[in-house]
Amino acid sequence: MAEFKSYALLLTEVKRLCDEKHTGTVFITTHDKHLVRFVLQDGQITALAFDASHNNHDAIEHVRRIKNGKLQFAAHIFDKASEVPLPDTETLLNSLVVSQSTSKNLNKIHSVVDKLSKLLAEYIGPFAQFSCDDYIHAHGIPENSRQFNQMMDTLLEEIDNSRQQADFKVKALNLLKIQNL
Question: Are 145 and 87 found together in one domain?
């Protein structure tokens, strides 16, 4: 069964499928029970739908509001019909990027989240990854210092010992400072 992924990770996966020239339909079920379809033919997005009522250009704004979702790809299942032609795939994917920080700093953001998870694991063990995933599922992936501080404060609650909480906070703040967040 597919796991919830952040919006940025969902777009990364769609882009990978396009880059690899797949044909089929990408289905994304969002955290708030919407259905998104990307129809791919030889790596090109030929149709986009958000629920049953928003198609192609009309779907873009709705897709951009997704926080996270589950992705499944069905190879060779696709609909050739599209009443309104979409822009080329690269332009379309770029239009779906929510902010410049998402596109420019995607690798950096995921690196920081991974480092926070590993840091938390020093205090609570392997459940740290579940705590981080739960946070991202509920709040989306953090993109700026305020959102990372909120994530850090939430993760801090997972540590029972107050001395260890203080130690985690110092290390996490240093990590964010080093990463310029």
Answer: no
Q: How far is CA 108 from the centre of its chain?
A: 13
- What radius of gyration do the chain's Cα atoms show? 18
**Token pair for residue 31?**
């955290």
- The answer to whether the beta carbons of residues 38 and 45 sit under 8 Å apart is yes
Same domain assignment for residues 111 and 151 = yes
65 and 31 housed in the same domain: yes
Domain that holds residue 75: 4-97
Give the neighbor-by-neighbor strand order of the sheet with 4-6: 4-6, 68-75, 24-30, 35-41, 44-50, 54-55
Note the pLDDT tens digit of each residue in 94-149. Answer: 777 765 444 455 567 777 888 999 999 999 998 998 888 788 767 777 777 888 88
